[in-house]
Amino acid sequence: MLDRIPLLKHTDSDNFFLLAGPCAIESEALAMQIAERVLTITDKLNIPYVFKGSYRKANRSRLDSFTGIGDEKALKILRKVRETFHIPVVTDIHETHEAALAAEYVDVLQIPAFLCRQTDLLVAAANTGKVVNIKKGQFLSAGSMQFAVNKVREAGNDLVMLTERGNSFGYQDLIVDYRGIPEMKENNCPVVMDITHSLQQPNQTSGVTGGRPELIETVAKAAISVGADGLFIETHPDPANAKSDGANMLHLDNLENLLTRLTVLKKAVNELG
Fold this sequence. Notes:
Elements: E1 17-21, H1 28-45, E2 49-52, H2 71-85, E3 89-92, H3 96-103, E4 108-111, H4 119-127, E5 131-135, H5 145-154, E6 160-164, E7 167-168, E8 174-175, H6 180-185, E9 191-194, E10 200-201, E11 210-211, H7 216-225, E12 230-236, E13 250-251, H8 255-272
Parallel strand pairs: 1-2, 1-12, 2-3, 3-4, 4-5, 5-6, 6-9, 9-12, 12-13
Antiparallel strand pairs: 7-8, 10-11
Helix pairs in contact: 1-2, 1-8, 3-4, 4-5, 7-8
């Protein structure tokens, strides 16, 4: 399916693919900086790369949380990243009317985990003809995601992939059940491991999500080892001052070393068959 994502390079490399970028589009300069840096690294390592950036954040804990710089402005930045660097881009949608809007600017539409059972949203995304990446809900089993996949396919779109992002563990933590990756692969679609969101610590009393970024490499290595096709990593040159999800993001300066090690691991996994 990857060869059906426009502009995606290195699809014959037998490497994992990568969805990476800032949590939210904060500015054109930042988006361009991150895209250029990640593209340089992924070209060096033969990693298929999709730039990720949310044009709007709708599922925030507090009313005063950053939600975006304006829909049209952010979507135009995503298009500029695409056209400047000749790479595909992915963004989230939250309501049915956003599907057609965002599809004019991006190559992959992402369904947030909390919304993965919303039938109308899945169908609206499917109807655009774009690749649809569905994040598994924190409250769902891996096996139940077959129904989300079927909704997209039955709407006439077979360009679908699934993303694992951990399950709720108590009130303020997440845990990854790695059995879910091979189980979701039984749907005959690519399966992505969302590394950074799996390390969130949600529902903090401050209203700001916490995280454990020191475990990014641990989660990524485990995901590659059990057969994840792709990785999702939010990265930023200054996570402490990121406008969204900074607590769990990977510092951009640490990305190349991480991907280099993961590429070595992926090669070993391939050789083991």
